[in-house]
Queue: 2 jobs
Job 1
Amino acid sequence: MHIPGRLHLFDISKEGQVLITNEATRQELYGRRMGQDKDLDLSWFDWTLGRSVSNDGQRSVLEEDGEGGGAEYTVFLRKTDGSPAIRLGSGMGLDISPDGKWVASTSVKQPSPTVLLPAGAGQPMNLADGQLFHTENLRFLPDGKSVIMIAAEAGKAPRSYLQMLDGSAPRTFGPEGFRGIAVSPDGKSVVGRKDNAFWVVPFAGDQTPQALPFVHADEAVLAWTTDSGSIYVSDTSSTPVKVYVVDIKTGKRQLHHEHAPADLSGVSSIGAGHITPDGNFYTYNVGRTLSYLYVVEGLK
């Protein structure tokens, strides 16, 4: 007997009936524009990961890792109005460029270069970082001329790198061990982790990090606000997940929104999410496992 999902055998009767459950595990993606009364289901196949959202909240980069995505995974771009997703290519989806023309991706087989997939007509373009082992963490800088990513050289720990789109080699960014990709809209600062704490590292000068003691180690920094004065911080320790706006200088925080699916059946995890700089649109992932009970007859 072949059916999708995981089968568990519980009992066999004297008459030959078999009691089984079929477990179906999936990743779902939801999005909401502020002011709307319910979430929009942006899932495409069975394992949809939302990797980023455009600054205007109109498009989301999806990565399919399940049966629908295949062994190499698949990158999609989907409008957040619920329009059908557009397949861009194989690999892990990372981010969409500020002008909306490119989607960054990389192969599941590492080391491998960052690949820019055209959102419209055009040919993919490889960047000059093929020697690095990439993670799923990458963001375009506001000017669209470079990306910042968390990657590692062979035998070394992950850290932040800057990679220009002009064909030049990548260079390290920030102190050793700093892992950050949240770039402020004014292009002056990056928020990231180092030594289990959050820091702000400036692009200019000696890149001396500034500690953010008011952001807890178990929280996640999603993005900066439009004015580059605050950050969006997600607390996933409870349901619903709470997202705050936190002033980068004073540490004062204000609740921006809470998110969780309307149906919590089988939900095992709710992601920190992604949010636009103006805070008007956000997405988040949900892990869900549902079990179906069957009595099977006539097995031979």
Job 2
Amino acid sequence: MLQPEILPIGEISVRRLSEGMSEMLPVMIRSKRGVDREASAAVLVDARAVAAAYPRDAGVLAALAEAEYDAGNLDAAIAAADAAIAIDPARKNAYVQKGYALFTQAADAEDETAAYKEAMKPFTALNRLENDHPLPLIHYYRSFAERGVEPSETARHALDRAAQLAPFDHGLAVNAALMHAKIGNIAAARQYLTPVAANPHGGSAARQAQVLLDQLENAEEGTPWRRRPVVDLTRALSSIARSVAEKEPQQAEDGDEANRPE
């Protein structure tokens, strides 16, 4: 059993929320809970209203940047993030949202190399603020992978470190496993996948991890491995069930129309 005296305890500080952040907090809660395109539009209306009332609050502007990004307004997200950073250069979420928006834009850029180099700048700045933040490490690896470029050894180490820093992120663990398997580090890949597959509440990530473990069963250490495409039967059956459920009311209406007396 771990003894309390051997656990390091960092400095704890408490601060009062600004008026703007007090107003923005309910909006942020809705945003953090997860939004689809329709919900993100409603959240954005409220975020813009608060930002208009508190245009000099860096926290409010960073939250606005997140709402703009969720709604697909990439340029507006970058502008709001830049405004937040100009007021408070230590506002971490502003760098995150700017980085997200720039990475999304980079995917469609004519000059991908230049675009991803620019997209890394906010994450590099974030890394200077918090050396152990996983997002800069993840996006450094992505800046190679999304261009179809073989990740450098430094990039692979970055993804490994991110997975260590965020063990709760099962998707990240699966990606780290795939990275290792592709270069023949089969044992390392299995080490990442095993706890994910064993999670009884892991959902699709657990199923994916188990499928990959099954495929890796006969893989040889030191031999690069390529995953085989697999259909997620649970997801496929759920999709079929939804499709049938959506068609049934329409079929009933068509039947009623056909049986209606003239």
